[in-house]
Design goal:
Distance between the termini: 9 Å
Number of helices: 11
CATH superfamily: Metal-dependent hydrolases
Helix content: 40-55%
Largest sheet: 6 strands, parallel
Number of strands: 11
Order of helices and strands: EEHEHEHEEHHEHEHEHEHEHH
Bound molecules: zinc ion
Strand order of the largest sheet: 6-7-8-9-10-11
Shape: globular
Number of domains: 1
CATH architecture: Alpha-Beta Barrel
């Protein structure tokens, strides 16, 4: 069994997008501050973090292992290639079969020469309203790796765009849609759009909770209520996608506990039941990850 207890389904214990994003804030590599927050989160019942950091994102296995040891948090590792702006050069040079081989190696042998293996493929992404040729190649490579290893897939959509196209792609490749999470769907702000994907059979992640500058949390809660009413809450995950130093408490950010301390009460005030909240945070992740 990979996980038990509450799970945040889309996080990055450490990552480095600072060079492309041209800000040092995007170099999230603060060990003791992260450990402190994970410890606090663990005490509140979050026992698992699905860490979707992969090739080209500053993946640092020894760092994450040390965080696990110091905090007690069960961290699940990922493999894959993020999104064109952040691809390492081999993604452009290699064939989809070669890229699949890299992911399969992470899953079956270990990541970057360690014995730590990946249990999920992602986050793999499309650009803003655009799915580049190389991103298509990555998705095709992911299908090969998924079919070979049966590991689940988790995606990135840029500000929520092209989620439906991703669903259609996986459907066309005969990937079982209940093995796929479409990420960042909360950023669409569009309940009908999300419900259409849910009816098609995928899981979706409301994984940017607290990022008010992109989408107000009230909108997230309103949409979740509609999803609950439509009977699809068992296909939804929650997370915060913390990626910057300034998101952490020591820098005055909202920190990892915000979801439990602030967003859960907000959801309750919108009529989302404790049973639904338990599903999104505990039962759905267990069912999805432990298969
Ligand atoms: Zn993302």
């Amino acid at each position: 069994m990979l996980i038990d207890g509450m799970t945040y389904m889309h996080e990055h214990t450490t990552l480095d997008l600072s060079e492309v994003k041209n800000t040092e804030d995007c170099q999230l590599d603060v060990f003791s501050e992260t450990v402190e927050e994970y410890k606090k989160l663990y005490k509140k019942g979050v026992k698992n973090i699905i860490d979707v950091t992969n090739f080209g994102m500053g993946r640092n296995i020894p760092f994450v292992e040390k965080v696990t040891k110091a905090s007690g948090m069960n961290i699940i590792y990922a493999t894959g290639f993020y999104q064109e702006d952040f691809y390492p050069i081999q993604v452009f040079r290699e064939t989809r079969e070669q890229l699949a081989e890299r992911m399969i190696k992470d899953i079956t042998e270990g990541i970057k020469g360690t014995h730590i293996t990946a249990d999920i493929i992602g986050e793999i992404g499309t650009s803003f309203n655009k799915w580049t040729e190389t991103e298509k190649k990555v998705f095709e490579a992911v299908v090969i790796a998924h079919k070979e290893t049966n590991k689940p897939i988790t995606t990135h959509t840029s500000i929520g765009t092209l989620g439906q196209e991703q669903v259609d792609f996986f459907k066309g490749k005969q990937v079982a849609l209940d093995r796929v999470i479409i990420g960042h769907v909360d950023l669409t702000g569009d309940a009908d759009y999300i419900l259409k994907m849910l009816r098609d059979g995928v899981y979706v992640a409301f994984d940017t909770v607290g990022k008010e500058s992109y989408m107000p949390d009230r909108t997230r809660a309103e949409i979740l209520k509609k999803i609950q009413d439509a009977g699809y809450i068992e296909r939804v995950f929650l997370s915060m996608d913390i990626t910057r130093k300034s998101h952490l408490e020591y820098k005055g950010g909202i920190g990892y506990s915000f979801l439990l301390d602030s967003f859960v009460p907000l959801m309750q005030s919108y009529g989302i039941t404790d049973e639904s909240i338990e599903k999104m945070l505990v039962k759905n992740p267990i069912e999805f990850m432990n298969r």
